[in-house]
Amino acid sequence: MVEYLWDGKMDCNWEDLGEKVVDISSKFVDNLLELMPFSYNEEAIKLITEESLRRFQNLAKKMAEEIKIGYYYQYEDIENVNDNAFRLNSWILLGSLTEFALQIFLVFLYGGL
Q: How confident is the model over 34-69, as pLDDT tens digits?
């Protein structure tokens, strides 16, 4: 039996992780743009447009920028050098990306492709 447990260590550095976010979001957008013309659901076609997917990609790029400086947030800031607003901004971006991806998933789940 194989157990997949996370050992608490990152498999890549912060810069690589930021690049992976951009690469994967670009592939996600490209795949959706290829699939949407085959959808029989007109509501899905109206909601998932090239413009909305570009907005998703821009959010991912902004999130990647925040991730690339993640080293500075990796440890507790005892001296309060880093402004907590930067951390809050990262969580807001992550929440926006997650919500966007879930909305796309729900359009496919309830509308069908």
A: 988 887 778 778 888 899 999 999 999 999 998 887
The pLDDT, as a whole number, for residue 5 is: 64
Amino acid symbol at 70? G
2 three-class SS: coil
Work out the angle between the directed axes of helices 14-35 and 50-68 (0-180°, nearest 10).
Answer: 170
The CB density around residue 53, as the number of other CB atoms within 10 Å, is 19
Q: Structure tokens of 113?
A: 């492709």
Per-residue pLDDT at 72 exceeds 90: no
d(CA 25, CA 55): 11
What is the C-alpha separation between 65 and 22, in angstroms, rounded? 10
Distance CA 38, CA 113 (A): 7
Helix (H) or strand (E) holding 65: helix 50-68
